[in-house]
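Hi U.,

Before I forget, here's the chain from the pilot set. I'm dumping it here mostly so it's searchable later in email.
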Amino acid sequence: MKIVFHKNFDKQYNKLRMEQKKRVKERLFLFSENPYHPVLGSHPLKGKYLGYRSINVTGDLRAVYKFVDSNRCIFVAVDTHSNLYS
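Structure:
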């Protein structure tokens, strides 16, 4: 799976603490191996993110993405649950 990062994702990622960045990298590696791995909790979103999906990075940290085609996806945001969905 080829993963592309939107500039918004990069901006939000750079604001994370080192521990959070490490968890994001771990989850993205797992995602690249199997986007539907049960640990990721991948699920479709509604509202302003209709057509996108989310994975759980930590208890409160989420990463939002969208499949471009069967072998490529773009991650558009990474932030806390409340910041993303408020």
